[in-house]
Design brief:
Layout: E1 6-9, H1 13-24, E2 31-34, H2 66-71, E3 74-77, E4 82-86, E5 91-94, E6 99-101, E7 104-107, E8 111-113, E9 126-127, H3 132-138, E10 147-151, H4 155-166, E11 170-174, H5 187-199, E12 203-205, E13 210-215, E14 219-224, E15 229-231, E16 234-237, E17 241-243, H6 246-250, E18 259-260, E19 272-274, E20 279-282, E21 289-290, H7 295-309, E22 321-326, E23 329-335, E24 342-347, E25 353-358, E26 364-372, H8 377-389, H9 395-399, H10 405-409
Parallel strand pairs: 1-2, 1-7, 2-3, 7-19, 9-16, 10-11, 10-16, 11-12, 18-20
Antiparallel strand pairs: 4-5, 5-6, 8-17, 13-14, 14-15, 20-21, 22-23, 23-26, 24-25, 25-26
Amino acid sequence: MNTAPIIIVGAGHAGGRAALALREQGYAGPLLLIGDEPHLPYERPALSKQLLLDSQPADACHIGSAEQYQTLAIERLSATRVSAIAPAKRQITLHDGRTLPYHKLLLATGGRARQACLPGAGLAGVQLLRTLDDAAALRPRLQAGQRLLVVGGGFIGLEVAASARQLGCAVTVLEAGDRLAARALPPLISAKLLALHRARGVEVRLGCQIAAFRGDGSVSAVELADGELLACDTVLVGIGIQPNTELAAAAGLAVGNGIRVDARLRTSDAHIYAVGDACEFPCPVSGQPQRLETWRNAEEQGRHVARSLLGAADAYAALPWFWSDQFDHSLQLAGQLQAAANCVTRPLPDDGVLLFYLDAAERLQGACGWGAGNSIARDIKLAEMLIRSGKPLPAAALADPASSLKSLLKGVASV
């Protein structure tokens, strides 16, 4: 009997969930969870919202408790970095030189916030937001009357902008592109997002190029490419994350936009698996390789890979899904929007909207919604079920607010 443990490298959301799922699914062997942060595994969505607004304590983000890991005999090495993997020997090397054997290895290495490679990026007050420690450092700076400048009009930057405005900060968002969250959102939803932020007092500048951060020890202004200086007290750089693939690449594993895995989440080495933000996997809708930085992806891949590690052969089939809260509105995306042949728009009350993306055979491939509060959640859930059904759907029924999406699941459209 093999006495080497299953080792999980990366104690974030996906890694923590996988460790707990292995025990839930009956694995009784040795299990080691290694993370480079000092914290328990935790979920990240609250970092830009509840933690900044002081509406939730940091420990509410934790996945499991220290007592639970101890009771389940999940050994944890915190504040520990893995420096190398030797697949031929089935062992890893830690930063202090120790080597540890593994039976199977799971890479849940996540990603790191991208730095702005500009003069002055090292000034105090130029902040990133990726970890609990980042959120703890940012929160005291978001006092009423303080001037926050957000670099990047993606979801993290906009969520922080919304939180800061609610705390009474003066907020400016600088986005290099011609619309907000352009890589993820269709133009109509981007426009609604822009209108909401401007209506709530956020100054948003599109097509904006930054030359440098200025200040004497601490940031006091951002210099734009045209020489204009924008005064500020704090800068949040929110320009995406860089997946942590270096460890896998150095070990000879296949790497593209992430650590490449098959439908079982297994890498090019049969004894090594990968999940989460650093993982590039086949999309269940299109079959094309993709990498997702979402809560659901970390949660569901963590659960699925536990089954794969224990010998299950079923493919990872969870649909892509994402949400973001912006002030008192929310947006959700499900499935794949990019490869659709046709987009159908359904207006909703209070300036809400649903967009349905159909392929050439009129099968639903993806859906995107915008609305007040949680008003679109049920419709997006029904859209997910319609995507899974694979049924051709009448565009007229999808576009008609009086037509029940639930009835389309039964093949009867109320038109």
